[in-house]
Design goal:
Blueprint (H helix, E strand, L loop, with lengths): L4 H9 L11 H13 L3 E8 L2 E8 L4 E9 L19 E2 L2 E3 L3 H21 L4 E8 L7 H7 L10 E4 L10 E2 L1 E10 L14 H13 L15 E9 L9 E10 L5 H12 L3 E9 L2 E2 L5 H14 L14 H7 L5 E3 L14 E3 L2 H17 L1
Helix pairs in contact: 1-3, 3-9, 4-8
Length: 372
Protein backbone atom coordinates (compact mmCIF):
# COMPACT_ATOMS: atom_id res chain seq x y z
CA UNK A 1 0.00 0.00 0.00
CA UNK A 2 1.36 3.41 -0.97
CA UNK A 3 1.99 5.92 1.83
CA UNK A 4 0.02 9.14 1.74
CA UNK A 5 2.50 11.78 0.49
CA UNK A 6 0.98 14.39 2.82
CA UNK A 7 1.38 12.13 5.84
CA UNK A 8 4.89 11.18 4.71
CA UNK A 9 5.77 14.89 4.52
CA UNK A 10 4.53 15.33 8.08
CA UNK A 11 6.62 12.38 9.27
CA UNK A 12 9.72 13.85 7.62
CA UNK A 13 9.11 17.28 9.17
CA UNK A 14 8.98 15.65 12.60
CA UNK A 15 12.59 14.55 12.08
CA UNK A 16 15.05 17.27 13.08
CA UNK A 17 17.57 17.28 10.22
CA UNK A 18 18.74 20.86 10.69
CA UNK A 19 22.11 21.59 9.13
CA UNK A 20 24.30 22.02 11.05
CA UNK A 21 24.70 19.33 12.23
CA UNK A 22 22.49 17.57 9.66
CA UNK A 23 21.33 14.26 11.11
CA UNK A 24 20.12 13.21 7.66
CA UNK A 25 20.53 9.60 8.81
CA UNK A 26 17.15 9.82 10.55
CA UNK A 27 15.43 10.53 7.21
CA UNK A 28 17.46 7.81 5.48
CA UNK A 29 16.30 5.33 8.13
CA UNK A 30 12.67 6.32 7.57
CA UNK A 31 12.73 6.12 3.77
CA UNK A 32 15.08 3.19 3.14
CA UNK A 33 12.65 0.41 4.17
CA UNK A 34 9.90 1.84 1.94
CA UNK A 35 12.15 1.90 -1.12
CA UNK A 36 13.83 -1.42 -0.39
CA UNK A 37 10.48 -3.19 -0.04
CA UNK A 38 9.52 -1.87 -3.49
CA UNK A 39 12.63 -3.43 -5.03
CA UNK A 40 14.98 -0.46 -5.14
CA UNK A 41 18.70 -1.12 -4.71
CA UNK A 42 20.00 1.23 -2.02
CA UNK A 43 23.41 2.85 -1.70
CA UNK A 44 24.47 5.00 1.25
CA UNK A 45 27.04 7.64 0.28
CA UNK A 46 28.53 9.67 3.15
CA UNK A 47 30.36 12.89 2.32
CA UNK A 48 31.45 12.97 5.98
CA UNK A 49 30.97 10.59 8.91
CA UNK A 50 27.29 10.43 9.82
CA UNK A 51 26.22 12.57 6.83
CA UNK A 52 24.57 10.10 4.43
CA UNK A 53 22.93 10.66 1.08
CA UNK A 54 20.65 7.88 -0.14
CA UNK A 55 20.74 6.68 -3.75
CA UNK A 56 17.94 4.30 -4.75
CA UNK A 57 17.97 2.59 -8.16
CA UNK A 58 15.49 0.34 -9.93
CA UNK A 59 16.08 -0.67 -13.54
CA UNK A 60 12.77 -1.42 -15.20
CA UNK A 61 14.22 -1.72 -18.71
CA UNK A 62 17.38 -1.35 -20.79
CA UNK A 63 17.27 2.39 -21.52
CA UNK A 64 19.02 5.03 -19.33
CA UNK A 65 17.11 6.04 -16.21
CA UNK A 66 15.47 9.26 -15.09
CA UNK A 67 16.77 10.86 -11.88
CA UNK A 68 14.63 12.49 -9.21
CA UNK A 69 16.45 14.39 -6.49
CA UNK A 70 15.78 16.25 -3.26
CA UNK A 71 17.71 17.11 -0.11
CA UNK A 72 17.11 15.75 3.38
CA UNK A 73 18.60 18.57 5.45
CA UNK A 74 17.01 21.87 6.43
CA UNK A 75 18.21 25.15 7.89
CA UNK A 76 17.70 25.72 11.61
CA UNK A 77 14.45 27.21 12.97
CA UNK A 78 16.34 30.46 13.67
CA UNK A 79 16.19 32.76 16.69
CA UNK A 80 12.68 34.15 16.21
CA UNK A 81 9.99 32.31 18.22
CA UNK A 82 7.60 30.07 16.24
CA UNK A 83 3.86 29.99 16.84
CA UNK A 84 4.14 26.21 17.27
CA UNK A 85 6.82 23.54 17.54
CA UNK A 86 8.86 23.74 14.30
CA UNK A 87 9.10 19.94 14.27
CA UNK A 88 5.50 18.95 14.94
CA UNK A 89 4.47 18.56 11.28
CA UNK A 90 0.95 19.63 12.18
CA UNK A 91 -1.69 19.78 9.45
CA UNK A 92 -4.39 22.43 9.80
CA UNK A 93 -6.10 25.13 7.73
CA UNK A 94 -4.89 23.47 4.54
CA UNK A 95 -1.23 23.77 5.50
CA UNK A 96 1.54 21.54 6.81
CA UNK A 97 3.52 23.44 9.43
CA UNK A 98 7.15 23.03 10.37
CA UNK A 99 10.75 23.48 9.35
CA UNK A 100 11.35 21.87 5.98
CA UNK A 101 7.68 21.57 5.05
CA UNK A 102 8.32 23.61 1.88
CA UNK A 103 12.12 23.35 1.66
CA UNK A 104 11.96 20.54 0.94
CA UNK A 105 10.55 17.56 2.78
CA UNK A 106 7.32 17.79 0.80
CA UNK A 107 9.50 17.48 -2.31
CA UNK A 108 11.27 14.41 -0.91
CA UNK A 109 7.91 12.86 -0.01
CA UNK A 110 6.48 13.22 -3.51
CA UNK A 111 9.67 11.78 -5.04
CA UNK A 112 9.41 8.70 -2.84
CA UNK A 113 5.67 8.35 -3.44
CA UNK A 114 6.10 8.53 -7.23
CA UNK A 115 8.97 6.03 -7.09
CA UNK A 116 6.87 3.56 -5.10
CA UNK A 117 3.86 4.02 -7.39
CA UNK A 118 5.99 3.45 -10.48
CA UNK A 119 7.59 0.34 -8.99
CA UNK A 120 4.13 -1.16 -8.51
CA UNK A 121 3.41 -0.65 -12.22
CA UNK A 122 6.66 -2.32 -13.41
CA UNK A 123 7.23 -0.42 -16.67
CA UNK A 124 9.56 -2.05 -19.20
CA UNK A 125 11.43 0.76 -20.96
CA UNK A 126 13.80 2.53 -18.54
CA UNK A 127 14.68 2.81 -14.88
CA UNK A 128 14.57 5.37 -12.11
CA UNK A 129 17.28 6.75 -9.82
CA UNK A 130 16.55 8.71 -6.65
CA UNK A 131 19.30 10.90 -5.17
CA UNK A 132 18.21 12.04 -1.69
CA UNK A 133 21.08 14.20 -0.56
CA UNK A 134 22.68 15.41 2.63
CA UNK A 135 24.27 18.80 3.16
CA UNK A 136 22.47 20.80 0.47
CA UNK A 137 22.04 23.80 2.75
CA UNK A 138 25.82 24.05 3.13
CA UNK A 139 27.03 24.38 -0.45
CA UNK A 140 25.43 21.19 -1.83
CA UNK A 141 28.00 18.99 -0.12
CA UNK A 142 26.15 15.71 -0.63
CA UNK A 143 25.44 16.36 -4.30
CA UNK A 144 29.03 17.42 -4.92
CA UNK A 145 30.16 14.19 -3.27
CA UNK A 146 27.87 12.18 -5.55
CA UNK A 147 29.20 14.15 -8.52
CA UNK A 148 32.66 12.85 -7.64
CA UNK A 149 31.27 9.31 -7.81
CA UNK A 150 29.15 9.36 -10.98
CA UNK A 151 29.03 5.56 -11.03
CA UNK A 152 26.43 5.85 -8.27
CA UNK A 153 24.11 7.91 -10.48
CA UNK A 154 23.21 5.11 -12.86
CA UNK A 155 23.89 7.01 -16.07
CA UNK A 156 20.66 9.02 -15.79
CA UNK A 157 19.90 11.15 -18.83
CA UNK A 158 17.53 13.69 -17.25
CA UNK A 159 17.01 15.15 -13.77
CA UNK A 160 13.95 16.37 -11.87
CA UNK A 161 14.70 18.50 -8.80
CA UNK A 162 11.82 18.76 -6.30
CA UNK A 163 12.88 22.10 -4.80
CA UNK A 164 10.02 24.45 -3.85
CA UNK A 165 8.55 26.03 -6.97
CA UNK A 166 4.86 26.08 -6.01
CA UNK A 167 4.39 23.35 -8.66
CA UNK A 168 5.58 25.77 -11.34
CA UNK A 169 7.98 24.26 -13.88
CA UNK A 170 11.37 26.00 -13.82
CA UNK A 171 14.24 25.61 -16.27
CA UNK A 172 17.12 26.52 -13.99
CA UNK A 173 18.71 29.13 -11.76
CA UNK A 174 21.64 31.49 -11.45
CA UNK A 175 24.99 30.29 -10.20
CA UNK A 176 26.40 31.42 -6.87
CA UNK A 177 29.90 32.41 -5.85
CA UNK A 178 30.30 33.45 -2.22
CA UNK A 179 33.66 34.90 -1.28
CA UNK A 180 35.38 36.01 1.91
CA UNK A 181 37.75 38.95 1.48
CA UNK A 182 40.23 39.58 4.30
CA UNK A 183 42.26 42.78 4.57
CA UNK A 184 45.37 43.05 6.77
CA UNK A 185 46.83 46.08 8.51
CA UNK A 186 49.05 47.05 11.44
CA UNK A 187 47.62 47.80 14.87
CA UNK A 188 48.48 50.91 16.83
CA UNK A 189 46.99 53.13 19.53
CA UNK A 190 43.91 54.96 18.33
CA UNK A 191 45.45 58.28 19.40
CA UNK A 192 48.39 57.72 17.01
CA UNK A 193 46.82 56.21 13.88
CA UNK A 194 49.75 57.34 11.79
CA UNK A 195 51.80 54.56 13.42
CA UNK A 196 49.44 51.86 12.17
CA UNK A 197 47.81 50.67 8.96
CA UNK A 198 44.01 50.64 9.16
CA UNK A 199 42.53 47.43 7.71
CA UNK A 200 38.99 48.82 7.91
CA UNK A 201 39.97 51.70 5.65
CA UNK A 202 41.12 49.13 3.08
CA UNK A 203 37.87 47.18 3.41
CA UNK A 204 35.84 50.38 3.09
CA UNK A 205 37.68 51.33 -0.09
CA UNK A 206 36.95 47.84 -1.42
CA UNK A 207 33.24 48.28 -0.66
CA UNK A 208 33.27 51.44 -2.75
CA UNK A 209 34.91 49.60 -5.63
CA UNK A 210 32.38 46.78 -5.37
CA UNK A 211 29.43 49.17 -5.25
CA UNK A 212 30.50 50.62 -8.60
CA UNK A 213 31.27 47.23 -10.17
CA UNK A 214 29.18 45.83 -13.00
CA UNK A 215 29.50 42.56 -14.86
CA UNK A 216 30.13 42.62 -18.58
CA UNK A 217 27.82 39.62 -19.15
CA UNK A 218 24.48 40.45 -20.80
CA UNK A 219 21.37 39.72 -18.71
CA UNK A 220 19.78 36.33 -19.15
CA UNK A 221 16.39 36.64 -20.87
CA UNK A 222 14.61 34.81 -18.02
CA UNK A 223 16.94 34.90 -15.02
CA UNK A 224 17.97 38.55 -15.42
CA UNK A 225 21.39 40.10 -14.77
CA UNK A 226 24.34 38.86 -12.76
CA UNK A 227 24.50 40.57 -9.36
CA UNK A 228 26.93 41.27 -6.53
CA UNK A 229 26.05 41.95 -2.90
CA UNK A 230 28.33 42.81 0.03
CA UNK A 231 26.66 40.76 2.74
CA UNK A 232 28.75 41.36 5.87
CA UNK A 233 31.59 43.54 7.05
CA UNK A 234 33.53 43.14 10.28
CA UNK A 235 36.80 44.27 11.81
CA UNK A 236 38.51 45.93 14.71
CA UNK A 237 38.86 45.08 18.38
CA UNK A 238 38.23 48.38 20.19
CA UNK A 239 37.49 52.02 19.45
CA UNK A 240 40.97 53.12 20.54
CA UNK A 241 42.88 50.54 18.50
CA UNK A 242 43.84 50.82 14.84
CA UNK A 243 42.38 47.61 13.35
CA UNK A 244 44.83 45.16 11.84
CA UNK A 245 42.15 42.94 10.24
CA UNK A 246 38.85 43.48 8.44
CA UNK A 247 36.63 41.09 6.53
CA UNK A 248 33.89 41.27 3.90
CA UNK A 249 31.62 38.55 2.56
CA UNK A 250 30.44 38.79 -1.04
CA UNK A 251 27.53 37.09 -2.77
CA UNK A 252 27.82 36.91 -6.56
CA UNK A 253 24.94 35.48 -8.58
CA UNK A 254 26.04 34.47 -12.07
CA UNK A 255 24.01 33.90 -15.21
CA UNK A 256 24.42 30.85 -17.47
CA UNK A 257 27.58 31.09 -19.51
CA UNK A 258 29.59 32.84 -16.78
CA UNK A 259 32.57 30.93 -15.42
CA UNK A 260 33.06 30.67 -11.65
CA UNK A 261 36.85 30.89 -11.87
CA UNK A 262 36.64 33.83 -14.25
CA UNK A 263 34.27 35.73 -11.95
CA UNK A 264 36.54 35.12 -8.99
CA UNK A 265 39.54 36.33 -10.99
CA UNK A 266 37.68 39.54 -11.89
CA UNK A 267 36.94 40.29 -8.24
CA UNK A 268 40.55 39.52 -7.32
CA UNK A 269 41.75 41.91 -10.00
CA UNK A 270 39.32 44.60 -8.85
CA UNK A 271 40.34 44.42 -5.19
CA UNK A 272 44.03 43.90 -5.80
CA UNK A 273 46.65 42.18 -3.66
CA UNK A 274 45.38 43.78 -0.43
CA UNK A 275 42.42 41.36 -0.46
CA UNK A 276 42.88 37.72 0.50
CA UNK A 277 39.99 35.96 -1.27
CA UNK A 278 38.64 32.61 -0.11
CA UNK A 279 35.58 30.87 -1.60
CA UNK A 280 32.75 30.11 0.86
CA UNK A 281 30.37 28.46 -1.60
CA UNK A 282 30.37 27.78 -5.33
CA UNK A 283 27.62 26.52 -7.62
CA UNK A 284 27.48 26.99 -11.35
CA UNK A 285 24.38 28.30 -13.04
CA UNK A 286 21.83 25.81 -14.35
CA UNK A 287 19.75 26.32 -17.46
CA UNK A 288 18.04 23.82 -19.74
CA UNK A 289 16.99 24.85 -23.24
CA UNK A 290 13.18 25.04 -23.42
CA UNK A 291 13.51 23.45 -26.87
CA UNK A 292 15.08 20.28 -25.45
CA UNK A 293 12.81 17.36 -26.45
CA UNK A 294 12.41 16.10 -22.88
CA UNK A 295 11.64 19.60 -21.62
CA UNK A 296 8.97 19.95 -24.29
CA UNK A 297 7.52 16.59 -23.24
CA UNK A 298 7.43 17.57 -19.55
CA UNK A 299 5.96 20.97 -20.40
CA UNK A 300 3.27 19.18 -22.38
CA UNK A 301 2.47 16.90 -19.46
CA UNK A 302 2.28 19.81 -17.01
CA UNK A 303 0.32 21.95 -19.46
CA UNK A 304 -2.24 19.20 -19.96
CA UNK A 305 -2.59 18.70 -16.21
CA UNK A 306 -2.90 22.45 -15.49
CA UNK A 307 -5.00 23.37 -18.51
CA UNK A 308 -2.42 25.81 -19.92
CA UNK A 309 1.21 25.56 -21.08
CA UNK A 310 3.87 26.65 -18.58
CA UNK A 311 5.87 29.79 -19.36
CA UNK A 312 9.70 29.73 -19.11
CA UNK A 313 10.74 30.53 -15.55
CA UNK A 314 13.75 30.25 -13.28
CA UNK A 315 14.43 30.00 -9.55
CA UNK A 316 16.11 32.64 -7.41
CA UNK A 317 18.07 30.07 -5.37
CA UNK A 318 20.71 27.53 -6.41
CA UNK A 319 20.24 23.76 -6.11
CA UNK A 320 21.86 20.33 -6.16
CA UNK A 321 20.73 20.12 -9.79
CA UNK A 322 23.79 21.99 -11.03
CA UNK A 323 26.25 19.46 -9.56
CA UNK A 324 24.22 16.41 -10.57
CA UNK A 325 23.60 17.67 -14.11
CA UNK A 326 27.33 18.30 -14.51
CA UNK A 327 28.15 14.79 -13.28
CA UNK A 328 25.69 13.35 -15.79
CA UNK A 329 27.19 15.12 -18.79
CA UNK A 330 24.99 18.24 -18.60
CA UNK A 331 21.80 16.21 -18.55
CA UNK A 332 18.66 18.33 -19.02
CA UNK A 333 17.44 19.34 -15.57
CA UNK A 334 14.13 20.79 -14.41
CA UNK A 335 12.89 22.16 -11.08
CA UNK A 336 9.39 21.26 -9.96
CA UNK A 337 8.18 20.88 -6.39
CA UNK A 338 5.20 21.43 -4.09
CA UNK A 339 6.83 23.77 -1.59
CA UNK A 340 6.33 27.52 -1.80
CA UNK A 341 9.55 29.42 -2.62
CA UNK A 342 8.58 32.28 -0.30
CA UNK A 343 8.34 29.84 2.62
CA UNK A 344 11.93 28.59 2.36
CA UNK A 345 13.98 29.39 5.49
CA UNK A 346 11.27 31.57 7.10
CA UNK A 347 9.91 31.44 10.63
CA UNK A 348 6.62 29.47 10.79
CA UNK A 349 7.37 27.73 7.48
CA UNK A 350 4.40 26.00 5.85
CA UNK A 351 3.46 24.11 2.70
CA UNK A 352 0.03 24.04 1.04
CA UNK A 353 -1.41 20.56 1.49
CA UNK A 354 -3.14 20.68 -1.90
CA UNK A 355 0.20 21.16 -3.67
CA UNK A 356 1.55 17.82 -2.45
CA UNK A 357 -0.76 15.30 -4.18
CA UNK A 358 -0.73 17.47 -7.31
CA UNK A 359 3.08 17.36 -7.40
CA UNK A 360 3.11 13.63 -6.65
CA UNK A 361 0.88 12.96 -9.64
CA UNK A 362 3.05 15.28 -11.77
CA UNK A 363 6.13 13.25 -10.91
CA UNK A 364 4.40 9.95 -11.55
CA UNK A 365 3.14 11.12 -14.95
CA UNK A 366 6.63 12.33 -15.94
CA UNK A 367 8.23 9.10 -14.73
CA UNK A 368 5.64 6.96 -16.50
CA UNK A 369 6.38 8.69 -19.80
CA UNK A 370 10.14 8.24 -19.38
CA UNK A 371 10.10 4.68 -18.08
CA UNK A 372 7.21 3.17 -20.04
Amino acid sequence: MLPDPVELTSRLVRLNTCNPPGNEAAAVELLSPLLSAAGYELTIAEFAPGRPSLVATLRFGPEPPLMMTGHLDTVSPGDQPWQSDPFDGAINNGLIHGRGSSDMKSGVAIIVWAALALAAQRPAKAGLVLALTAGEETSCQGAEHLAQHPELLGGAKAVLVAEPTGNRLMLGHKGALWLKAVFRGVSAHGSMPELGDNAIHKAAAAVGELAAFSFDAPPHPVLGPATLNVGTISGGKATNVVPDRAELSLDLRLVPGMDLAGARARIAGLLGPEAELTPIAESEALWTDPGDPWVETVAGIIGQRRGQPPQPAGATYFTDGAALSRALGDAPTLLLGPGSPDQAHVTDETCRVANIPEAAEDYLAIAQHWCA
